[in-house]
Amino acid sequence: MLTLASKLKRDDGLKGSRTSATASDSTRRVSVRDRLLVKEVAELEANLPCTCKVHFPDPNKLHCFQLTVTPDEGYYQGGKFQFETEVPDAYNMVFLAPLENF
């Protein structure tokens, strides 16, 4: 995660000094989804309950992560539930109809 955040900072510093090499420009581009996820992952980690843990197998791919939930009370106490999540490219750009219309 720090790797992508530092990449975003570096990209912001390079905006004024663009080179004509399109191949190197394409490797430095960061999607809108990833820019949003940098902020939202930081908020997620700050507010995540102690019974939940988030893991990023590849720190450069914030859109792919694993969530592990280990309830400490109730019927599922002692259980361990793992979820793999992949955020689509169209994240936060696709309008979803309100549920009341269905």
Automatic annotation (TrEMBL):
**Gene3D superfamilies from the xrefs?**
Ubiquitin Conjugating Enzyme (3.10.110.10)
Annotated region Disordered: the residues are 1-30
InterPro entries from the UniProt entry? UBC, UBQ-conjugating_enzyme/RWD
UBC core domain: residues covered: 32-102
Extract the CDD domains matched here: UBCc_UBE2F_UBE2M
Annotated protein name in UniProt: Ubiquitin conjugating enzyme E2 F (putative)
Native organism is Equus asinus
What is the phylogenetic placement of the source species in the record?
Answer: Eukaryota, Metazoa, Chordata, Craniata, Vertebrata
Q: Which gene encodes it?
A: UBE2F
